[in-house]
Specification:
Layout (H helix, E strand, L loop, with lengths): L17 E11 L8 E11 L23 E4 L2 E7 L5 H12 L8 E4 L8 E2 L4 E4 L12 H8 L7 E3 L5 H20 L1 H22 L17 H4 L3 H16 L3 H15 L2 E3 L1 H11 L22 H12 L6 H11 L7 H13 L6 H10 L3 H13 L4 H11 L5 H11 L3
Parallel strand pairs: 5-7, 8-9
Antiparallel strand pairs: 1-2, 3-4, 6-7
Length: about 425
């Protein structure tokens, strides 16, 4: 069978591109901060002019004409030249190859563009464009170079099929970038940048609004200019998902193994989030499924103090609702129903009701009425009212006990339940 051709690419790996040769005569004022110029352009059809041994996404082909700049004699050795732009590029490339697989593009160059360039970098294959604002003088902004290098795998080798799935490019690239920097500067450096990225994500969500569709990881841009939706969301929300999966599925080395396999599987292809998700599930098919609860063990909480057990349930409650099978298994193994500590019991019963376990309804109603502390009573009644199987019981039980409640408690619970 003939080799499949990705229509989103300029060429398949084994072919030679067919292109038109551009005869360009150009006059440019390079002394200005914002370049401008005039050009006379003629086009002559030719073949075999541009040879691509690697499949290149069409949108990543770029032309650049520039005067070489940035060199200076070494004062200690006149035979050598010093370049202002001195990052750990070679080390980054070697680390990236270790993380993502072979660098297939042959050459890697960096081109510093004029100050008007609107981005930190642009990952054109073989030649990355970067902003001159990276020239800090102390190499402190090298993470941008690590980011653009990482695009050689995630973005250029494996590409999002449409802008709706832009996070596939940028989320994976930020993830690789931070691992490269972690190898160079230490794991704490990686976590430090992850923390900063989380702050950037919060800023973007605040700008758009929490309910904006542009805060989604996969967006619908069918009627929207992608530049209008551009933000840190695909970068940092994408990274946050991958970082969470790293912790969930076995740690950095395990998840980096997945990443390398992902690049190998989808090299020279343009994919969607569903393609990524299907491969994720396939790669980690040996991990526990939702109905595999054998890992629950009575010793899990044996050595925890009451405060620690309470906090454990508080953390689990943030992820509610849980699958009902998980709740039943937790009761079977840990027997939370037998615990009298009010803080633990309160969190456990809220978890049960939010996960829609009908057997817990009588226990939750009992705790909501046998004491009057609003910290416990109001949230329990709210949860019970939100559960369709217990809503009517919650209202009826409140009305039965209302006269025996403190007036403030009765008033506020009545408002919560919308009972006059």
């Amino acid at each position: 069978m003939p080799e499949a051709v990705d229509t989103c690419s300029l060429a398949t790996p084994a072919s030679v591109c067919r292109t038109k040769h551009l005869h360009l005569r150009c006059s440019v004022d390079f002394t200005r901060r914002t370049l401008s110029g005039t050009a006379a352009l003629t086009v002559q059809s030719q073949e075999d002019n541009l040879r691509s041994l690697v499949s290149v996404p069409k949108e990543l082909v770029a032309l650049m004409s520039a005067i070489r700049d940035g060199e200076a004699p070494d004062p200690e050795d006149p035979s050598r030249k010093i370049y202002r732009f001195r990052q750990k590029t070679e080390s980054m490339l070697k680390i990236a190859e270790d993380l993502g697989g072979q660098y297939v593009w042959g050459q890697y160059d960096l081109l510093v563009l004029p100050p008007s360039f609107p981005y930190g970098g642009m990952e054109n294959p073989c030649l990355t464009f970067v902003t001159p604002t990276l020239l800090a003088g102390d190499k402190s902004l090298s993470n941008v170079i690590a980011h653009e290098i990482s695009h050689s795998w995630t973005g250029n080798l494996v590409t999002n099929k449409t802008w709706d799935h832009f996070w596939l490019n940028e989320g994976h690239t930020v993830y690789l970038e931070r691992h490269i920097c972690g190898r160079l500067f230490g794991e704490k450096f990686r976590h430090f940048h992850a923390l900063g990225g989380w702050g950037e994500l919060q800023n973007s969500i605040k700008t758009f609004g929490e309910t904006s569709p542009f805060t989604k990881l996969v967006v619908d841009l069918s009627d929207t200019d992608p530049d209008v939706a551009y933000s840190s969301v695909p970068y940092e929300k994408g990274f946050a998902l991958l970082f969470y999966l790293e912790q969930l599925l076995g740690g950095p080395e395990v998840f980096l193994g997945f990443l390398k396999a992902y690049v190998k599987e989808f090299s020279y292809k343009s994919i969607t989030t569903d393609d990524w998700k299907d491969f994720l599930y396939s790669h980690f098919k040996d991990k526990a499924k939702d109905d595999d609860l054998s890992s629950f063990n009575v010793t899990d909480l044996k050595d925890l103090s009451s405060h620690q057990r309470s906090e454990f349930l508080a953390q689990v409650l943030q992820r509610a609702p849980l699958p009902l099978g998980h709740i039943k298994r937790m009761q079977e193994v840990y027997n939370f129903n037998a615990i009298n500590n009010s803080e633990i019991r309160f969190r456990w019963l809220r978890l049960c009701i939010q996960s829609k376990w009908e057997e817990a309804i009588p226990l939750a109603l009992k705790m909501a009425t046998e004491q009057g502390r609003m910290k416990f009573t109001r949230p329990l009644f709210k949860d019970l009212a939100a559960f369709d199987k217990s809503h009517d019981q919650a209202v009826r039980t409140f009305q039965e006990h209302r006269a025996r409640m403190h007036p403030v408690t009765a008033m506020l619970v009545g408002k919560d339940l919308k009972v006059d």
